[in-house]
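Hi team, as promised in this morning's meeting, here are the two structures we talked about. I've kept the exact order from the run log so nobody has to guess. The first one is mostly here for context; it's the second one we should focus on when we meet again. Sequence first, then the predicted structure tokens.
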Amino acid sequence: MPSATQPAIVWFRDDLRLSDQPALSAAIETGAPVLCIYVFDEESDGLRPLGGASRWWLHHSLSALADSLARIGGRLDILRGAAGPLVTSLAKAANAQSVVWTRRYGGAEIAVDRQAKADLAEAGIGVRSFNGQLLHEPWDVQTKAGEFFRVYSPFWRAACARPAPAAPLPAPSRIIGAPWPGNAPARVSLDDLALLPTKPDWAGGLRETWRPGEAGAQERLSDFLKQRAHRYAAMRDRPDQPGTSALSPHLRFGEISPRQILHATRHAEASGAVPGRDAEKFIAEIGWREFAYHLLFHAPDLRRLNFQKKFDAMPWREPEEKEIDAWRHGRTGYPIVDAGMRELWTTGVMHNRVRMITASFLVKDLLVDWRLGEEWFWDTLCDADPANNPASWQWVAGSGADAAPYFRVFNPVLQGKKFDPDGAYVRKFVPELRNLPDTWIHEPWTAPTEALRKAGVTLGENYSFPIVDHARARDRALAALASTKTDMA
């Protein structure tokens, strides 16, 4: 039986919060002193290094977590290297009674955790893992045949038919911190991780937009439920309006749990603050995240391999570098696409509707392999999620989990007119078009010469001509997509 002086180790990963933290709560309940650690691991096989924007967020999220732990008597210790051996070495050095963590669902992450669990068990150290990141475990939501779901709608119906998740756990008010063992692996400082950009420092827009950390996440949720959730169903697709929750980066790093979001939303619905239709629509977006993790668990190579194998025959183009550069930096000549790509570069996020538009433009209009776009988003999104990012790109490409993706090609002009009708979103992120009348804001190449002159727009100089004709590109994409069906015949 472990002694009261043997510490419990909490291994933080993508769960950087104190409230609704089952692993942390379990460690504290032992009554033992607690070691709270984070391991920055870019060495274990198969783990995907974070992109630049995510690294920026992680720095500030870890700083916020360290401050929160310090306020209640704890301490966050940071290690760097292959996580499994480091955690095992620390547990042995500390004569730990147990190590606890929140489960992860990627193939490489599961492999690391399984090996760590085996090594710790061999050393006689207890191990417990907890679900702190999903409403339902991926293996708990199955078809009647006992298989995993490949289409979102039946998946979410089955998930909603399960017993409701338990109420979120409160944050601890006190932690008994354990001393760092003298013969343990060396700790590093947060600055030692070099997560922040310096030369150049491109993070100014991120600093202006975001407040990483658990407090920032709770503030975002509260503000959303009070100010915008009551019109979510109608406004969620409008990038020109503040209609979304902006919680995705906080969810990505586990600064807030889906269980907290679900219960807060249901409470707001029950109080009459949020209409049922809006609450259901918002919770369904949490459902899409659940589905993405369901897919990742059952298809660990989601970011590399087509979910639908027939798309292996897709005749992707080898794009010119200037085309890719134009897409990445918002110079395609299609204002809604350019606004989205510039929003991404400036703020580290992009409105979800515009993510679909910009992704469709790359994959369908330019006929470029979706993996190139997924890699760019992975590097530039603060909320670059290992499940959501590839699942969403595959959904747009048509290679993912979807019943009828074949004919889906977004028209960037019509999408702009429908979801940014007054051009406010375009004017914010494509300022060279700010003086162009609404009539032509989404297709400036059709504007009369005099209108362009008055607006100060010179196509081909301070704003691009379209780099591709959408109508022809659509026909090309449909023909290419049709060929995948022919090759499967």
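And here is the second protein, the one for discussion:
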Amino acid sequence: MSVSYFVRYDIEIADLPAFLRRYREVHVPLVARWPGLRRMVLHTPLAWRDPFPVNPGRAVLMAQLEFESEAAMNAAFASRERAQAREDFKQFPRFDGTVVHQAMAQEEVFRAAWLDGNEEGA
């Protein structure tokens, strides 16, 4: 079972494009060196409409870090590379808001057949 570690930035910042650019160009290469990290995905908000009332959230960025196992994730957390990324976080441009960290187990409960080429016409 793989696990994901999410870092959600519910923040307000004067220059969001510059924040996101620095995150991609400086912080991501540091995080990419964590031992055992399989994949890192950045999620950024879209302008979307839902015909039903929902709480749209405030996140301007969500980073998803995927590991093979909880043990691999915990080993990465204890690494020198993680400490370096945490030091870099102190260099981020000043912002208001919260940053939430959460680790979660992944369970794929649906997969479209066409993703595996199992659908007619695929």
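Starting points for discussion:
Residues 15 and 108 are 36 Å apart (CA to CA).
Helices lie at 16-31, 70-77, 80-89.
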